Amino acid sequence: MAVDFSPEPVVADLAQRTAMFVRDVVIPIEERYQGVVRSEETRAALQREAKDAGVFAPHAGTEFGGHGLDMRGRAAVFEEAGYSLLGPLALNIAAPDEGNMHLLDAVANTSQKERYLRPLAAGEIRSCFAMTEPTPGAGSDPSALTTRAERVAGGWRIDGRKWFITGADGAGFTICMARTSGEPGDPGGATMFLVDAGTPGMTMIRHIDTLDESLFGGHIELLFDACVVPDDAVLGEVDEGFRYAQVRLGPARMTHCMRWLGIARRAQDVAVDRAGERRLFGSRQAELGMVQQMIADNEIDIAASRGLIMRACWELDDGHAAAQSTAIAKTFCAEAVWRVVDRSVQICGSLGISGDLPLSRFLREVRPFRIYDGPSEAHRWAIARRVVHRNDKANG
Ligand SMILES: Cc1cc2nc3c(=O)[nH]c(=O)nc-3n(C[C@H](O)[C@H](O)[C@H](O)COP(=O)(O)OP(=O)(O)OC[C@H]3O[C@@H](n4cnc5c(N)ncnc54)[C@H](O)[C@@H]3O)c2cc1C
């Protein structure tokens, strides 16, 4: 299959305008807040600026006010937005809202799209996606899902506990995965529910204190205790939740990779600037072989990540599930981005771990990516199983 990586002119133009917007408008705000914004006013102000610059919602359908980019188009634009920790928030392509928009677009009915997708795409509300549970519940293994939804008159009653739910504080609605049939360990039997903020029985227990801080709305522990939702809160079909989770997860993994690739590039730029200025042992630091090796390895990791993202996006745009290629790209990128930021810190010496440069913040922000959207080990396990299965099949 021939693969052409060059973006169409309209995408290249949007990517270039996004890069300028991030450089001129977003990075000064990121520097002021050291990458962590907590106020709705600042979020709204950033999004107003993105709308004025004509770069808002590149992923959303044109009928929802977006630019309607496919996955390959998103790769070019999201990487530019990701050059700042606040770029995705400004463009309304941050996690988990961007993945939820993709899910709603694919699965929601017309009235659910009007009620949830339209205001989400416009940045008027935020959302969250509640799957993970404390032990022994769902995590790397979603089939361990313990949260239950039972039929009651006119709707469903949800009971269970969720944690690490990004953006739940202040979200207008939650997409909650609950078991509607079977037992924990069964591969099917999950349903997705749209739960409005303020629904009695859904309570925020706490903000979990985590290494990373930049994703808006924090990481939240949520309790569902006799939380009753109407029948029309069901997203898609009953018992099809695990299938829809795959619809969300493949593309969402890739968009995470795209955004973090932007941060890897920024880290490399910071480190190369520094190595070009600093003099050590009678030469520029950038002329010392072991520093050159780190700069070259960063460049290789960035280029390889971009290539793997593009291959997976190509398959997704072609209508394939792309389970293997998204798993490969996600595993590689999550680890490559970490390596790039870590080497960049090393190149900058003590300055690298100080708050005078953004690198130590980047290091804290990228580390969890090796855990969420599937830990590296879970992906490697799944990749290997597919390879062995393919081999078994070939050998009859
Ligand atoms: C910053 C952050 C944000 C998050 N946001 C959300 C969110 O918005 N919504 C949501 O629902 N969840 C969210 N999560 C949760 C995330 O999806 C889970 O952390 C992830 O699925 C792993 O589950 P777990 O933490 O329960 O780890 P476990 O499932 O307990 O796994 C622990 C470790 O076991 C190892 N492991 C797992 N599988 C295998 C395997 N097959 N073979 C070998 N080793 C393996 C890995 O090293 C893994 O790290 C978030 C997590 C973080 C850290």
TrEMBL record:
One of its GO terms (biological process) is fatty acid beta-oxidation using acyl-CoA dehydrogenase. One of its GO terms (molecular function) is flavin adenine dinucleotide binding. Keywords: FAD, Flavoprotein, Oxidoreductase. It holds the Pfam family Acyl-CoA_dh_M. SUPFAM superfamilies: Acyl-CoA dehydrogenase C-terminal domain-like, Acyl-CoA dehydrogenase NM domain-like. One of its GO terms (cellular component) is cytoplasm. Residues 14-124 form the Acyl-CoA dehydrogenase/oxidase N-terminal domain. Belongs to the acyl-CoA dehydrogenase family. Homodimer. This is Acyl-CoA dehydrogenase family protein. It comes from Jiangella asiatica.
